[in-house]
């Protein structure tokens, strides 16, 4: 459905025929013109695939964070990855590297590096304060690092106010693509993130009862926690570097899956991958159509959907206590 939405109308039959023609040993004449063919394969399909990859990664990373920290409010931005990525992107936009110097890769590279550095700073701060052993210490360290990065970003923006529009456009999130370059850029990180997290779904179920009980069963909670946080952060930083900051996916999607499939990670994690991909693709369709021909930032759409849903979840949880 998402490939059919846009200024240039493409019929469902023609799109299906074009996709079937791409399969091995299948030849179908879709009837699309050269321009329509380019629109489908170079604009719409890359955008849909990128949306699915970003949504799946944010959702499964959120579920992993909530599992390792045993905190239902945790999301992929818990350890400062969003703030670090935002600071890196802001500095690069101001430096003009997105249009010259490093080219179009400048902002994604800076955002990726900023997210990784912020999480590294969080762990160093957490270890210096509490030995890195407690979930609460790490979370508080993440809050401190995020606050510092946000303050630095605000200071830089105030010094260079002529770039505010470009900075906010990135911060609000977008899935605009230039062919398949963004997809190929993040695909290896997304694949590693999803595969590794899914391999630990049973371990997360054991860790949910507590570190002492998990250790008695031969699991090293601190090592597992560090590995999953590192992998989830790597995937989050990668997708955020090309999509901007898209909030609520890592909180809303895992909670929605829990309402249907229960809290067990053996179902929660793979279903979060699928639901996260579907959610963000649908949000992108709304972003492209609600103000057509203008386009709404996708971060605004996910916040408009996610915030009320999250409030309902919180109220439901309170009522069950």
Automatic annotation (TrEMBL):
A Pfam short name: FecCD
GO annotation, cellular component aspect: plasma membrane
UniProt entry tagged with the keyword Membrane: yes
Keyword annotations from UniProtKB, A to Z: Cell membrane, Membrane, Transmembrane, Transmembrane helix, Transport
Single annotated GO MF: transmembrane transporter activity
Membrane topology: Multi-pass membrane protein
GO biological process, one term: siderophore-iron import into cell
Cellular location(s): Cell membrane
Domain of life: Bacteria
TM spans (from-to): 41-65, 77-99, 105-125, 137-160, 180-200, 226-255, 267-287, 294-314
Family affiliation: Belongs to the binding-protein-dependent transport system permease family. FecCD subfamily.
Protein name: Iron ABC transporter permease
Organism placement in taxonomy: Bacteria, Bacillati, Actinomycetota, Actinomycetes, Mycobacteriales
